[in-house]
Design goal:
heterodimer; A: alpha/beta; six-stranded mixed β-sheet; 10 strands; B: mainly alpha; ABC transporter involved in vitamin B12 uptake, BtuC; two-stranded antiparallel ribbon; 17 helices; 4 strands
């Protein structure tokens, strides 16, 4: 179980995430919505360790991970896919995923064996590429992929980490219409495993509605609504704070 | 077999494979093919600088760390051996003692410098290494009771490596196997072994993490690699290898001074060798170091000949005068970086790939 307690970060005088307390249960998918600049990605960064909180705590199970650097959080099962594609551009598609498998299996400090001789790592990496339908591009440099495929690779890297908690930051942004279902089906299948916690930042309301068990609304860094999808979407504060402003774009 | 020795890192270009084979065999047979004292010194220097450049490439090309402290570690190795040879005993125990202390000191310093990389950005890290290296160079010239100051140290090396030593009476292929030849083969063997070790390291799971750090440090952290540990280990490893290169230099030259080991010029030379050869390819260090040293040593002779040959033409003889060699040396580098931005190895590989595709 993942929990934040009064999680806050301020940059100069600007409070980007303001005392957000929230709990995320295994087997559930929670969407975090809100207008641009509401602090959704910043909230993610605080949970996955890219940013350090000014105040408040992040708890994973019983452990306080607020001060823990990102790599250690990843190793404890917090997996994060990024909003802006964030790959190893000149390494091959397969190598991008292989590195994630290697990180999870803790083989990075092996200096004297050949990486290519670790078949278990590349075989596993290959299986994640299969799940996002990218095996045909396995040998191409990540930077040479079209945008939609880079997004898929981003998700494959997340899958390769085999996390307990999946954090998707706008996984379908910029994807063409026919590519979106691949990613949505993947997210559904993760949810269907029953023991994984999924956090999703997403702008497309139809996606949010069809996937979520629960919706959390952030506005100006504050948690302003939290509950069942239908209930939250219907609430006046959401109609005003988010749907009124944000609908139509993105 | 060869595949395992090269750690699966095959040249991927016939021209590159041929060039590497040529350099390998020329160095392997150097005492027999180039039997003058001067040529043997050049061959030994090439071995040492291949190793030094390769260890620098581990940082620059593979991990994306810009450091100016690499000659410091080179110097620590050379002075470590020199001081013990000169002040304690010129024997193999002394080499081990001096080398052991030098490697320990280098690794400790590299770890300290590496830990700085936790907090600072690349440019500041480069500045820190520059400051540390300069301080060390000043220290070496000021502590003259220990280091001989600007004059450096002259000392005796283990008997087997002295020019007067004979392995046995008689000759092989017309060559007396004396201490110079022994010193050369020691250099060649150690350089080759450590080069192959580096080749293994860059192709290991660890080496892949270094490349991931070079490509996107932020993401490497996000998938679970504590990058500061990897960078620090890479720093220590590169420093240790540079230290051994320095030890070899001290044994071959039988003198050590700031100019041969610690000067900023050598730092620039290593940087150029790696860039010209091709960063992040280790084989680039082989080509870069070889071409660089040959150009540095023989360009003057070539220009002297060219100057004499054009003596009738106006202006050309004075442009080609051996005193202008640095000008031409500089132009050669600008041209090579301009035409081969990915280095010679990068260029050869992309040509070979294009050839395969067409």
């Amino acid at each position: 179980m993942l929990r934040t307690e009064g999680l806050t970060i301020s940059f100069g005088g600007h409070v980007a995430v303001d005392a957000v307390s929230c709990e995320f249960q295994p087997g559930s998918l929670t969407s975090i919505v809100g207008p641009n600049g509401a602090g959704k990605t910043t909230y993610f960064n605080l949970i996955s360790g890219q940013l350090r909180a000014t105040a408040g705590r992040v708890l994973l199970g019983d452990e306080d991970i607020t001060g823990l650097p990102a790599p250690y959080r990843t190793r404890r099962g917090l997996g994060r896919a990024f909003q802006l594609t964030n790959l190893f551009p000149n390494l091959s598609v397969l190598e991008n995923v292989r590195l994630a498998v290697q990180a999870r299996m803790g083989k990075g400090m092996n200096l004297l064996s050949m990486a290519i001789s670790h078949r278990e790592l590349s075989d596993a990496a290959w299986s994640y590429l299969e799940r996002v339908a990218l095996t045909q591009m396995a040998q191409s440099p990540a930077a040479s992929l079209p945008h939609g495929d880079q997004r898929k690779l981003e998700v494959a890297i997340l899958l390769a980490l085999e996390p307990q908690i999946f954090m998707f930051d706008e996984p379908t942004a910029g994807m063409s219409v026919d590519e979106v279902p691949v990613i949505l089906d993947l997210i559904r299948s993760i949810k269907a495993q029953g023991d994984k916690t999924v956090l999703l930042v997403e702008h497309k309301m139809d996606v949010v509605r069809s996937l979520s068990d629960r919706i959390v609304v952030l506005h100006n860094g504050k948690l302003v609504a939290d509950g069942e999808p239908a209930e939250v979407i219907a609430s006046p504060i959401v109609q005003q704070a988010y749907l009124g402003m944000g609908s139509g774009d993105e | 077999m060869l595949h395992a020795i090269l750690s699966g890192d095959v040249p991927r270009s016939k021209v590159l494979a041929a060039a590497l084979a040529l350099i390998f065999f020329a160095l392997l047979l150097a005492p027999f093919v180039f039997p003058t004292v001067n040529a043997l010194n050049v061959a030994g220097k090439i071995c040492i600088f291949i190793l030094l450049a390769a260890s620098y490439d581990l940082l620059l090309g593979y991990t994306g760390i810009v450091s100016f402290a690499h000659t410091m570690f080179f110097g620590i190795g050379a002075y470590g051996v020199a001081i013990v040879m000169g002040r304690v005993a010129p024997d193999w125990g002394g080499v081990l003692l001096g080398g052991g202390i030098a490697i320990a000191l280098s690794v400790a310093l590299a770890a300290l410098i590496g830990l700085f990389s936790l907090r600072v950005r690349a440019i500041f890290f480069a500045m820190i290494t520059l400051a540390v290296a300069s301080a060390f160079a000043i220290l070496a010239s000021q502590l003259s009771t220990l280091t001989g100051g600007e004059d450096g140290l002259n000392y005796r090396v283990p008997e087997m490596l002295r020019p007067a030593f004979r392995l046995f009476d008689g000759e092989i292929l017309g060559i007396v196997i004396n201490g110079r030849v022994m010193a050369y083969y020691l250099t060649f063997a150690v350089s080759l072994l450590l080069f192959l070790l580096l080749l293994r390291v860059v192709n290991s799971p660890f080496g892949r993490v270094l490349q991931a750090i070079r490509e996107n440090e932020f993401r490497a952290e996000a998938i679970g690699y504590r990058t500061v540990h990897y960078r620090t280990l890479a720093n220590c490893l590169a420093a240790a290898v540079a230290t051994v290169a320095g030890m070899l230099l001290a044994l071959v030259l039988r003198y050590t001074n700031p100019d041969t080991t610690l000067s900023f010029t050598i730092m620039m030379d290593i940087l150029l060798m790696v860039v010209i050869g091709g960063m992040g390819t280790l084989y680039g260090s082989v080509l870069g170091a070889t071409l660089f040293l040959l150009a540095q040593l023989y360009l003057k002779d070539v220009m002297g000949a060219a100057s004499a040959a054009t003596s009738g033409v106006p202006l050309l003889p004075s442009l080609l005068h051996p005193d202008r060699w640095l000008l031409w040396f500089g132009l050669l580098f600008i041209a090579s970086v301009y035409f081969f931005p990915t280095g010679i190895v990068g260029r050869l590989r992309s040509l070979a790939q294009r050839h395969r595709l067409l």
